[in-house]
From TrEMBL, chain A:
Family in the record: Belongs to the MON1/SAND family.
Residue span, FUZ/MON1/HPS1 first Longin domain: 188-308
Residue stretches making up the FUZ/MON1/HPS1 second Longin domain: 363-472
UniProt topology in membrane: Peripheral membrane protein
Protein function: Required for multiple vacuole delivery pathways including the cytoplasm to vacuole transport (Cvt), autophagy, pexophagy and endocytosis.
A GO-annotated cellular component: Mon1-Ccz1 complex
Stated name of the protein: Vacuolar fusion protein MON1
FUZ/MON1/HPS1 third Longin domain sequence ranges: 501-629
Main location: membrane
TrEMBL record, chain B:
Protein topology in the membrane: Lipid-anchor
Subcellular location: Cell membrane
Keyword GTP-binding attached: yes
SUPFAM superfamilies found in the cross-reference section: P-loop containing nucleoside triphosphate hydrolases
Compositionally biased region (Polar residues): 202-213
SMART domains: RAB, RAN, RAS, RHO
Keyword Lipoprotein appears in the UniProt entry: yes
Name under which the protein is recorded: GTP-binding protein of the rab/ypt
Pfam families in alphabetical order: Ras (PF00071)
InterPro entries the record matches: P-loop_NTPase, ROC, Small_GTP-bd, Small_GTPase
Gene Ontology terms describing biological process: protein transport; vesicle organization; vesicle-mediated transport
Family, as annotated: Belongs to the small GTPase superfamily. Rab family.
A cellular-component GO term for this protein: plasma membrane
Length: 640, 213
């Protein structure tokens, strides 16, 4: 597998070609038998299959202009079938008249679609069969063009059936070494130690295994300090593609190891995050004091189980999870209508002004309403002083603490947490009042919603408590609370008219916020989910590192770059016809687009290699994000 | 309804949060995250007074046991009506820590009616294996008697004795309040403002000394 053509369209229209070697991976198979249209099969024997009747006007849409695509009335519901799972025993009948598929993977669209009852939106009447067939064909074409993975699948086989491969994408980042199970097998690791060489934390490896490494790291760092009177930054082994990045912040040394092709800058950022976590728990001043007279102090005695859990969690988010909050240094926002968000912020603002008795000026520094789901926080609302905002890293550290503190506590508790925000003031503590406004409940459709109020005064708890309950009462009274506790407007990639796109991340630089569609996964077992997220993450990382230099500076102000991961091994189709299973060829395309206003990361479905179509879809996504900006991002918040 | 403030103090991982969880939710988790800062929650108990049911509401501060949060403790025990000082009967130094908390409470809390309850947690561990016990019941009990504390050994895991603690504290505080009320009735005017909350304004800076200094 190699990335065999990589285009780089910068503002100056330069084009660079590069070749990247990578290991060959596999995640999905194409199943072909003579009588059946091809199926795509998951490794756990879940058949992923959709059967689409033939169509002639396959790529017509691609040449249509933007608006006409938008006019298409039923696209939204039809496109939500873009990833359909049906078990073998419920395989839909392949008669062209009825396509009924049981979508069993997600409660949101858990229903049976039948195309027999499609109503023409212009008349609102049930159409006769002939017309219905026309509409149906049209719909199916659109469906096909939005989801098919392979050009051949779109054409259909000799039976006139167009098989549609799932929206599953292959993994091109499989690391042979990582199949083994020892310390060296991990393609990424983090070490934290004291300047005296005492271990504090490592992502992988038991004490016995890591202590020799700690010694080596310490020696290397000291060597540069003594002989060059400087701090070592990075060791780069070009041949094995191994990178060691160091951060020395006496009395703490941090080192990251990676052979994933990350840039030094990315690793440094990750180390900074780990260091920031330590500081959020023990501030810099305390840390210095602890080590002042005892340079061989063992910090592990001072940290708590929770601290190690949190460090482990951060490492896992950094290396295996699709968690753009860290990599993009941005936060995700809870989707809400513009007017709803506006009214919520108005209400909070007026309460802050009028309720100065319970909460004297200066008591509240910062406030947040967050939506919490699957260890992921989305911003619903921000209360902040004019002209001030907290650094995203500070907030992310706060999110980490909240996750673990509420893990086995029930929601009625209110917490009062001292936390140091290292990017705000690394020598002092702030105090956070934390309360759950609602808990996740499938029956009532509510989410976990958290209120956070931050103060500099350590005895402000009761003031915060009163203000918090006043605030929630008022929001409830104004019937605004419901907007916060129900996630009604979440969207999927299929809700945007951007064909062939598997996933995207769009960051609005102005708001330091990003948006991405909900992940659509056929099999949500934790391991599958983890692999899937890791895969998406690696694609995005690869895209990112293709356009920045080692210091993390984009090579141009405006960059548009396509990456193509392609299977170059010769694969003779004729031979494979005899086999039951044929691997889906790797033919992945991605796009990264950086401008001063936004960053867009795009991952296409497997088999899409038409740059024009991808670019058109990218433009549609950007258009969509811009149009929905007030919904997708918090623009101002409640300022005081 | 009567309201009382109660604070839990003690060394880290002696089971303060587990005791609260058993009392409030009647459940137990083997693995709990250690508390950072403090958690605030409330629960009611019903006590009998001459065949009359009285509801007592506890506002509970479940504090972090770790040394580095020690400087926050005064905020939680100030104005408290009761304190639960917890130690782990399988950890000798946790009793010493408990004693130092008792000492601090006696010195710093200016309320003669403060109810202090010394609790030895984790008796379930000694059920199968008496050797795990490090702190003798007699030693702790003697210490409690000498210092005028209530005392019991409990298990948050099995729930043994947990409800009883809060029941007893509730009854004690109720008696105290009843006595107060009778004396108050004679000189109401003096006690109009039973508790005066004096709050000195603090500078709203990012106070570096306010935690763990």
């Amino acid at each position: 597998m190699r990335v065999n053509d990589q285009y780089l369209d910068t503002a100056s229209n330069k084009s660079i070609r590069s070749t990247v070697q990578s290991l060959r991976g596999q995640s999905a198979f194409n199943v072909r038998s003579r009588a059946q249209p091809s199926l795509s099969i998951n490794l756990d024997n879940t058949i992923v299959q959709t059967i689409i009747p033939p169509a002639n006007t396959l790529l017509n849409d691609a040449s249509e202009d933007y608006d006409s695509v938008h006019d298409f009335p039923r696209l939204r519901s039809v496109q939500s079938i873009s990833s359909i799972v049906s078990r073998r025993n419920t395989r839909p009948s392949t008669t062209t008249d009825q396509l009924s598929v049981n979508t069993s993977f997600d409660p949101i669209i858990e229903q049976t679609y039948s195309y027999d009852n499609i109503q023409d939106p212009s008349t609102g009447k049930l159409q006769d069969t002939a017309f219905g067939r026309e509409v149906r064909k049209n719909l199916i074409d659109r469906l096909a063009q939005s989801i098919y993975s392979f050009p051949t699948s779109a054409v259909g086989d000799s039976h006139g059936m167009k098989p549609v491969v799932s929206n599953e994408i292959p993994d091109v980042f499989i690391d042979v070494e990582s199949q083994k199970s020892n310390l060296k097998s991990h393609d990424k690791n983090f070490f934290i130690l004291t300047s005296a060489g005492k271990p504090i934390f490592s992502m992988f490896g038991k004490d016995k295994e890591i202590i020799p490494f700690m010694g080596i790291i310490n020696t290397v760092v000291s060597y540069f300090q003594v002989n060059e009177s400087t701090n070592i930054r990075t060791i780069n082994l070009k041949r094995t593609k191994q990178v060691f990045a160091f951060t020395v912040k006496a009395p703490i040394i941090l080192m990251a190891y990676s052979r994933r092709g990350e840039t030094t800058n990315e690793l440094m950022q990750q180390l900074d995050l780990l260091y920031s976590y330590l500081i959020s728990s023990i501030n810099e001043r305390q840390l210095k004091r602890l080590f002042h007279n005892r340079s061989n102090f063992d910090l592990r005695n001072y940290l708590e189980v929770t601290d190690f859990d949190n460090l482990r969690q951060i490492c896992s988010l950094l290396s295996d999870k699709l968690y753009p909050d860290f990599t993009l240094n941005a936060l995700q926002c809870f989707v809400m209508r513009k007017t709803e968000r506006g009214r919520i912020h108005e209400t909070i603002h007026s309460l802050l002004i009028n309720d100065s008795k319970t909460i004297p000026r200066g008591t509240l520094l910062y406030g947040l309403i967050l939506s919490h789901k699957q260890n992921k926080f989305k911003l619903c609302s921000v209360i902040r002083p004019k002209g001030h905002s907290l650094h995203t890293i500070d907030l992310q550290l706060l999110f980490c603490l909240i996750t673990h503190q509420f893990e086995n506590r029930d929601g009625d508790q209110e917490l009062w947490l001292p936390i140091c925000f290292p990017k705000f003031n690394s020598n002092g503590f702030l105090y956070s009042y934390i309360k759950y406004l609602s808990r996740a409940d499938i029956d009532t459709g509510t989410e976990d919603t958290v209120l956070v109020l931050i103060s500099a005064q350590k005895d402000a708890f009761y003031k915060m408590k009163t203000f918090g309950s006043n605030l929630w009462d008022k929001l409830q009274k104004e019937k605004l609370g419901q907007y916060l506790i129900r996630d009604r407007l979440k969207f999927r990639i299929s809700d945007i008219q951007a064909p062939y796109i598997h996933h995207f991340i769009y960051k609005a630089k102005k708001y330091v916020q990003y948006v991405m569609p909900e992940l659509e996964i056929h099999n949500s077992s934790p391991q599958k989910l983890r692999n899937y997220e890791c895969k998406l993450k690696r694609y995005c990382e690869h895209l990112y590192s293709s356009v920045v230099d080692d210091n993390g500076v984009p090579i141009n102000k405006t960059i548009l770059n396509y990456l193509h991961w392609k299977d170059t091994s010769v694969n003779d189709d004729d031979d494979n016809n005899e086999q039951e299973f044929v691997e889906e060829k790797i033919d992945m395309m991605g796009l990264i687009w950086i401008t001063p206003q936004y960053e867009l990361y795009l991952i296409c479905n497997n088999g899409i290699d038409n740059k024009d179509i991808i670019l058109r879809s990218a433009k549609r996504i950007i258009h969509w994000c811009k149009k929905n900006e007030p919904r997708l991002f918090i623009q101002e918040g409640a300022t005081f | 309804m009567l309201q009382f403030k109660l604070v839990l103090l003690g060394d880290s991982s002696v089971g303060k949060s587990s005791i609260v969880n058993r009392f409030v939710k009647d459940s137990f988790d083997e693995f709990r995250e250690s508390t950072i800062g403090a958690a605030f929650l409330s629960q009611t108990v019903t006590i009998k007074d001459d065949d009359q049911d009285v509801t007592v509401k506890f506002e509970i501060w479940d504090t972090a046991g770790q040394e580095r949060y020690k400087s926050l403790a005064p905020m939680y025990y100030r104005n408290s009506n009761a304190a639960l000082v917890v130690y782990d009967i399988t950890q000798a130094d946790s009793l010493e820590k408990a004693q130092s908390w008792v000492h601090e409470l006696k010195n710093k809390v200016d309320d003669n009616n403060l109810v202090i309850y010394l609790v030895g947690n984790k008796v379930d561990l000694t059920k199968d294996d008496e050797e795990k016990r490090v702190v003798d019941r007699d030693v702790a009990e003697k210490y409690a008697q000498e210092n005028g504390l209530l005392f019991n050994e409990v298990s948050a895991k099995t729930g043994e004795g947990i409800q009883q603690i809060f029941q007893t504290i509730g009854e004690n505080l109720y008696e105290v309040r009843k006595k107060e009320n009778t004396t108050n009735n004679s000189n109401m005017a003096n006690r109009a403002h039973g508790q005066v909350d004096i709050q000195l304004p603090r500078p709203s800076t990012n106070d570096s000394t306010s935690c763990c200094s």
